[in-house]
Design a protein that fits this description.
Length: about 200
């Protein structure tokens, strides 16, 4: 059995559901189920074929990144914050900070968490989405012979070579605010739909 569809909502919940389905890979009966846009389906197939492995950092990021906030979601958060539709605290933060996201260059990243399983980064992609990826150097051939005791430094050098630039402080706060705004917007929309008798 093979089922694909390119019709899917571009909401945070929709992406999380698609990612959960797409990360499962082939079913026990050998069938495959992929849900999402053509690009999401292709990326999921690549990721499942390679079990998340890649020859280099660029390919690993391309195959394993997840969209946290799409450009469309970001623009909707800004619009609704300016219209006064969000809670006062987040509305203040969004009016003050979120419009600055448009000025952040693609390739700018901040560190999420550093753990044994890898190094998580959040970055602005070329399509203006805010994405995240957990970089596991054990799955990247480029780092196979890298015996550096601090994998973070090796990854930082490799990211720089790929055109990424690290930022902290204000950009980190900005990325967190953008994600919080999208989450609140999603929650408001879900509650509104439930009041109308729909389930999201």
């Amino acid at each position: 059995m093979k089922f694909e569809t390119a019709e899917s909502g571009d909401t945070r919940e929709g992406r999380v559901l698609r990612e959960d389905i797409n990360h499962e890979g082939p079913a026990d009966d050998g069938g495959e189920l992929y849900v999402g846009t053509r690009d999401e389906i292709d990326a999921a197939k690549k990721r499942n074929k390679s079990e998340g492995r890649a020859k280099d950092l660029y390919t690993f990021i391309e195959n394993n990144s997840e969209v946290e906030v799409s450009e469309a979601e970001y623009l909707e958060v800004v619009r609704r914050a300016e219209a006064g539709e969000l809670t006062s605290d987040i509305q203040f933060m969004e009016r003050k900070n979120i419009p600055q996201y448009a000025d952040v260059e693609p390739g700018i990243y901040t560190l999420g968490r550093v753990a044994e399983s890898g190094i998580q980064i959040y970055y602005k992609s070329g399509d203006n989405s805010l994405k995240s990826v957990l970089i596991d150097t054990r799955k990247i051939e480029q780092f196979k012979n890298d015996n550096h005791p601090n994998a973070h430094l090796s990854v930082a050098r490799a990211l720089s070579a790929e055109g990424f630039s690290s930022r902290g402080g204000d950009v980190e706060l900005l990325f967190k605010t953008v994600m919080a705004g999208a989450e609140i917007l999603s929650s408001i929309d879900r509650e509104s739909a439930e009041r109308k008798g729909f389930s999201l």
